[in-house]
Write a structure and sequence with these properties.
By secondary structure, the protein is an alpha+beta fold. Helices cover about 50% and strands about 10% of the residues. α1 runs parallel beside α3.
């Protein structure tokens, strides 16, 4: 059985779509998943990149693209009233729901849908308080432990070469984005392409 580490930030609509579609995409496979919340903004800073919302034309495209993808994939999605928003409260809530800082699929589902269904303000204090009461985390959202775990998860992702969310890691291989799900499935299917082509892409001089 393969193990998948799913690096995610609730601020990412592509992470939400990938989360919803993962079970269907890998139907029939035996695998386990660890959900590892990270701070997407820290990845952008590390790699010297702007976020999609910081480029007006890209922001408009992203909004349209994710709405289209949701419709095509049969996933309910409404853009939140404010985006981007500060996701720290939601990330720490997810971490506080587990002693190890590795939230369950149920916890991630509740938080993703809090953000991406209903079109409300994801960071609204009253909504966040209600969500916290629903999930009843055993640890305090503002405890040092949650902050340390979030930093640790993010540093771990950066060290492994993660540059965006969602990213799936399996056997040391990284699969980035919603559109990588078919490629991830092919790897789990033991597609022979991965025996040679994956490593060949690491060699210098492959691009014209």
């Amino acid at each position: 059985m393969k193990h998948i580490t799913f690096y995610l930030d609730f601020i990412s609509p592509y992470a939400y779509l990938a989360f919803e579609k993962l079970p269907e995409a890998l139907l029939g496979h035996s695998y386990s998943v660890t959900y590892r919340p990270i701070l997407f903004a820290a990845l952008l800073k590390h790699h010297g990149q702007l976020g999609p919302a910081e480029i007006p034309a890209k922001r408009a495209w992203t909004d349209r693209h994710v709405l289209w993808l949701a419709q095509q994939n049969g996933v309910e999605l409404q853009l939140p009233a404010q985006h981007p928003f500060n996701p720290l409260g939601l990330l720490r809530l997810a971490l506080a729901c587990s002693d190890s800082g590795l939230p369950s699929r149920y916890v991630c589902e509740r938080i993703f849908r809090h953000v991406w269904q209903g079109g409300q303000d994801a960071a609204d204090a009253q909504r966040l308080q209600a969500l916290t009461a629903q999930l009843a985390p055993p640890h305090g959202v503002n405890d040092a432990l949650a902050r340390i775990q979030l930093r640790s998860h993010t540093d771990d992702a950066i060290a492994k070469g993660v540059f965006g969310a969602p990213t799936f890691e399996v056997d040391g291989k990284l699969f980035w984005g919603l559109d990588s799900l078919p490629m991830l499935k092919a790897y789990l299917d033991e597609d022979p392409w991965f025996d040679s082509a994956w490593a060949a892409a690491d060699q210098v001089g492959q691009w014209p």
